[in-house]
Structures are given as C-alpha cells and as structure tokens.
Amino acid sequence: MREGIEAAVSIRIQEPVFESQTKTKLGSQNTYPNGPSLRNWINDFVKTNLDNYLHKHPETAEIWLKKIQQSERERKEIAGIKKLANERAKKANLHNKKLRDCRSHLNSKSPERFESTLFITEGDSASGSITISRDVNTQAVFSLKGKPLNCFGLTKKIVYENEEVNLMQNALNIEDGLDELRYNRIVIATDADVDGMHIRLLLLTFFLQFFPELVKNNHVYILQTPLFRVRNKKETIYCYSEQERVAAIEKLGSKPEITRFKGLGEISPDEFKNFIGRKMRLEPVRIEGEGSVQHLLEYYMGKNTPERQEFIIGNLKLEEELEPEIAEA
Question: Catalytic residue numbers?
C-alpha cells in the first residue's frame, strides 16, 4: 500500500530529548513522559484524517485502490521467479564476462566512493577500449549484448525474466532501493549513430520505468565522445560537433588530417583515456518541467501512433537541407 506513496510531516517539539549524541532519533517517550509516544500520535492522526479524506474524495480512493491491486499482481507474478533469478545473477557475477568491476563502490567506506562510475556500453568492441583505458579503482564497465528490451508498459516481472536486464539491476544493487547503490554515476556510453541513440533511449526507458529515483537523484549521465579528430604534425584537436570541426580546421589550416569516428570501438585505448578522465564530458539526465514521465514514455516509446508519425515526418531533415547549415557553421 505504501509503495510509491510519499508524505511530508512537519513537527515542532519543545525541548526534545534524543537517544544519542548524533541526535538522529528521539527518546522513547518523545519528551512526553505521561503521554503517548510521538509515533503513535502521528499514526492515529494520519489514520483518522486520511480515512476522512478518502471518503470525501472517492476518485482518489479508486486510483489508490487500483495501484494497490496492481502492486499485488506484480508481487504475485514475480514471487515464483524472483528467487531463481537472484540465484542465477549471483552465480553469474562470479563469472560474469559482461561486468568488469572496479575496487571502490558507493556503498562502501572507500574515500573514492563518490567517484565510482559504471559505464554501460554497446557490444564488446566499445567496452574493450573503455576497459583498457579506465581507472580500475573507480570505473567499472557493463557490456550490453545488442539492443536491450523496450521495457515500456511491462511489469517488473520482466526485470527478473530477462537475464541481461536482471544482471544489470544486480550489478547496480538497486533491487530494494537506492540505499545500497554500488555506483554514484551510471554513464550510458553508446555510439553517436542511430543505433546508439536507440540503445540510449531503451536504457533510459528502463530506468524511468522501474527506477526513476536514479534519474531524480542525479545518478544517470550520457557520455559525450568526439565525433572528429583534426590534426597536423604539431597538434591534435578532438571535436564534439560540426561547429568544433570547422573551427579546428580554421585553426590548424593547410589541409589537416580529419578522422570521423563512427563508433567507440574505433577510438584507441590511448586516446580514450582523454575522454573518460578528469576532462570527461558528461551530460546529466534530468527530468524537467511538470510533465508526466509516463506520458513522455508513452509518446516516444509506446505504440506508433499517428500523432508520433506526424511529429517524425514534420521534423525530418534531408541531407541536402543539412549541408547549408553545416557550411554556415
């Protein structure tokens, strides 16, 4: 019943008595030796007023009832496979070739715990360069096998039935919430092409569908990697956009060598060190505005509605239309 429900209670107490020096918990009598405990008083108050509210607002009560019933169905669905999936994940962790772990984790006492980062990559070629270049103390790599499942509209049962998704959840250690999250930063590292963008959207859909708190608490990022390398015999410039490429060509002059990176696997480990070190470019994933996340996911990741088709057609740009923009930049 409490799943997904949040409440804020503000209480003022004169001369409070705490149980310890840390002052994280009130004393058992909560400064009222002859009266009920504060916990009991709040429970009774909330029970009475919530009951009154739900009777006065049956539409809210109906929504809440449906949510409770849905949670009950999901719990029953995953009850039979959850234990088996967790056992399988634990065994896989011992010999999991998809996860190359680091030494420091967010849920440890390591002084570097806040630097702990998990890169989620597409394919073994991309993960190879990152694995060789990474800092083994704080940077881990999880390699996906092709495109992950589109989780929109599915119940959490799919998290346990799909081995790859379950292994990723197990690597993050987020099954029971964020209290034991193992990495402070979850970085989606995909190619800057259509397939890479699609994988990025599928991963974001998974997080927003089942673990939106990861995004709300600023744990999810997108790795920005260079699209071009412009160099001459004296200097090398990495460019993250067409505008930067044009500026680099003007700076170096005399027809410099230009390389277009089609995928992360094409970037050598020696070069990759520059992109995942101190100068790493990360774009945080944020939920902005008051729009519903569910509506957003439904529009972009749900069924291909006529409305979405019109949006795509209306925003298409042909190659000939893009050329003047690039030349202008």
Answer: 122, 191, 193, 195
